[in-house]
Design goal:
homodimer, Beta-Lactamase, 48% helix, Enolase-like, domain 1, alpha+beta, DNA-binding
DNA sequence: TTTAGCACTCTTTTTGTTCGACTGCTAACA
DNA sequence: TGTTAGCAGTCGAACAAAAAGAGTGCTAAA
């Protein structure tokens, strides 16, 4: 995907200026603006000539003949691959991140919070995709009181999920022991994700005499998993409305539509593969609906959880800042998770 | 608040038509439209005379001289108090509600889901306010494994909250028993809401030798409570954008602003008192920011949880449908909760 | 009391005009 | 050969004027 093309220094300068100017202002950039920026190192006429050539090789576009130039998808690509300088986050952003990236109870909650922080810093929607590869190691049933059972699911990696079940009739101790044994046999090695399915098929087969207890368990787990599976999009709509690209209703609807269409987001998330920040710009997307959007994403593996985090914005996104933010947050998260690993990872229970 | 005023039948007819027409179309209603609707039972000129009188008593307004009429706040009020017929929900809506109002694990989850359903049916933002008056009855600590403790909080009403705590150093059995005793002494009778505060002050006093365990508990509870306290607003932004009142960016921002301003929403929620559906229209609100909005709300008490559910819309809201929906959902919820009560209430653990 | 009809008002839509922002090109210049 | 000043040309944005349309209020008559 990396774009090579031999541009002379002046063309690089001009392209850089146009991209960065447009990212900031959302207005097409005129030759005069560039000439002034370089204090008339070259005249606007010269720049016009250069711009024309840049347009011919497809790096720039002109909304209409009497307008300035705007980067094309190829233009952004060239900029991202060759011209962009590393962004240094402002102290404000760094402080915000430092104060807000913290460890919550569970890995999931910690990551959700991180997605929220990223969305706030970049003022763009952040999409979080968590794939929990953890499998169940051990099941424990405790009788809390006469009519309350506690089922504790411990996973291979050491995380714990627990569910409280209220039952109608008292169950004798030995029955509970039996169920405990059976559950261990049936569930050991089951990935957390497929737990509800495995459980419901178990209810229909060997374990049907415990169907009361187990279906209560299934309902509760199902709710949790149902909750998480619609892609986890974090964004502040109010501030999105301030972005010129989304300040009209139709564009806003388009964006919301993209964000709520599982298929689109899933396809995007699945394609994230590299273990670093990756960027897909406008028409580089497979889906035409995304032709005006860019996605900056990060693939990170923490413990047994494969996490993908993506930020969706207009093509005119501050790529450098987005990358810097994702990387910085990622490092913070790595610290948190590795520290937890040392101590004894996690703080408490899996919530939300 | 109920409005009385002697209108003759024809005026009532006309007012009703104007309100209902405007609720449906969002366009000022013209005399001609009304005349046609009644198949020229009376001429448009007659209706114009009537409309003028209705305007004089303050029930109608005219956006400008050559426009039709729009109900004033007083007009809506008169309609709601005297003219409105009971709405019969469509089969589609009833089916949707029947299929989606179900009991989830906890009361909170069930109510949140209900708020979501209401928001979907009415296509308006729904605000949920849960005030849990339940107090802690009993605390139990279980040692799940060497480094994992489970703390179970049972409330007076029988609901259960539990938290898993991972600890660094193994704690001997007798220490745990001691902590358990102390916790019971300290927490019994504490309302769930003030748990984090009580806990953190306990850490600073008698219980400070268990601060490791207790602060982990506090963090986890804090997260939960922090999550819930920003008022629980359920809405689908995408479809809100289709409502004429919110289809421009500024109005949308205003709405989002209202919904995210705790003070406004809290004040509104606190005022909800009657044990039935109540309606506040436009300028009847204390807060001028709400002058273009109406709130239809429901106060329901389930078990130990005082629940208030409000729907916020433009003044041009379909009040009859809103009322019908709230009532219908409320009945469904009452069924669910009373059934749970019988069986053994709840299904499982408190989640989310 | 009702109503037909018309003058009047105000908004919305359309059309026309001007203004300004840029470019592209040409011709001159270094 | 590359650079630049200058100017004609293009197009959008802003503004103004004109026309169309929607409704009312009022008058006068039924």
């Amino acid at each position: 995907m990396v774009m090579h093309m031999n541009l002379d220094e002046r063309k690089k300068k001009i392209l850089t200026t146009i991209v960065e100017n447009y990212i900031e202002s959302a207005e097409p950039v005129a030759s005069k603006t560039i000439a002034e920026k370089y204090e008339r190192e070259f005249s606007s006429a010269t720049i016009r000539n250069e711009m024309k050539q840049l347009e011919e090789i497809g790096l720039l576009e002109q909304p209409h003949i009497s307008a300035g130039r705007v980067p094309s998808t190829k233009g952004y690509r060239y900029y991202v691959d060759n011209l962009m300088k590393e962004n240094i986050l402002t102290m404000v952003d760094i402080d915000y991140i430092n104060n807000n990236i913290v460890s919550y109870g569970s890995i999931e909650a910690t990551l959700e919070n991180a997605a929220n922080v990223i969305s706030k810093v970049l003022n763009l929607p952040a999409v979080l995709h968590i794939e929990n590869k953890d499998v169940i190691e051990n099941v424990k049933i405790l009788k809390v009181s006469d009519k309350i059972l506690l089922i504790i699911l411990m996973s291979k990696s050491g995380t714990v999920k627990d569910v409280i079940i209220k039952i109608t009739d008292t169950v004798p101790e030995d029955k509970i022991d039996e169920l405990n044994k059976l559950l261990n046999q049936n569930l050991k090695g089951t990935p957390l994700e497929s737990l509800p399915n495995v459980l419901s098929s178990a209810i229909n087969n060997q374990l049907n005499k415990f169907s009361d207890i187990l279906s209560a368990l299934a309902v509760s787990l199902n709710y949790e998993i149902k909750e998480d599976s619609p892609n986890n999009v974090k964004t502040d709509i109010k501030s999105l409305l301030d972005i010129p690209e989304f300040s009209n209703t139709d564009k806003m609807k388009e964006l919301l539509n993209i964000l709520s269409t599982k298929e689109i987001i899933n396809e995007v998330m699945e394609k994230i593969k590299e273990d670093d920040v990756s960027i897909v710009i406008g028409s580089e997307h497979h889906d035409v609906l995304l032709k005006d959007y860019s996605i900056i994403s990060l693939d990170m593996d923490n413990l047994n959880v494969n996490t993908k985090l993506a930020v969706l914005g207009p093509k005119r996104t501050d790529y450098a800042k987005a990358i810097a933010t994702l990387k910085y947050v990622n490092n913070k998260l790595k610290n948190i998770f590795s520290k937890n690993e040392e101590d004894v990872e996690g703080g408490s229970q899996e919530r939300r």
